[in-house]
């Protein structure tokens, strides 16, 4: 995959899905290496934020190899691992398919194959920025969530500290592809991922998108100095119409 091909992916679902198919087998190993083990800490933080409970139905979108889905399923909740990459799902089934309360569904985030108000909680880790229309995905997540249900988005973000932000960007651009090669993974795919992170909006902008989609109680907190941000929100328990002419919106807050 050349630089021009990476730049021209345009987040086309079929092409991005194919890229993830190629890296599925070594995906988790490479993530652990390139994040210095922080991926486990981020996954644990996401599970705590979702707060799964026995008897709940939870959607883990962009589940990849289902590591996060398996963590959620340990609570006894009924978890659906959904992803648009069949290669990732196949790897997830190989590793975690023995869990009786974990199922796998191939799904497009912009057109989810689920009924309205189906899930008590929905979550998505490191996948929203790879969706062609992320605002549409946020609206779809709202649609399939029960009134009063929970949203947790864990996504790479923008470190607020200028010095650390510069170091982080250097690592992503210069070191990460080399780490991927050493780990035996498609380094070009990780070049693409670096580019997607660079062009992704910061914490406040993503919070605004979540609120725009109709979610309430929107908040975020930074993990690992803002390398990733954990966004949380609720679906309104009842639908309330805005007052005529009302354009007032609240600022995103840190959790």
Write the layout of secondary structure elements.
Layout: H1 3-7, H2 13-23, H3 27-34, H4 38-50, E1 57-61, H5 67-73, E2 78-83, H6 86-96, E3 102-106, E4 119-125, H7 134-144, E5 145-156, H8 162-182, H9 187-198, H10 203-212, E6 216-223, E7 228-234, E8 253-254
Parallel strand pairs: 1-2, 1-4, 2-3, 4-5, 6-8
Antiparallel strand pairs: 5-7, 6-7
What features would you describe in this structure?
This protein is of the alpha/beta class and 255 residues long. The chain has ten helices and eight strands. The model is unreliable at 1-9 and 241-252 (pLDDT under 50). The chain has one domain (34-158, 199-254): Rossmann fold (3-Layer(aba) Sandwich). The chain is globular and about 45 Å long. Belongs to the class I-like SAM-binding methyltransferase superfamily. MenG/UbiE family.
The pLDDT mean sits at 83
User: Which spans of ≥5 residues are poorly predicted at pLDDT below 50?
Assistant: 1-9, 241-252
The top-level CATH class is Alpha Beta
- Number of discrete helical segments: 10
Order of helices and strands: HHHHEHEHEEHEHHHEEE
Strand content: 15-25%
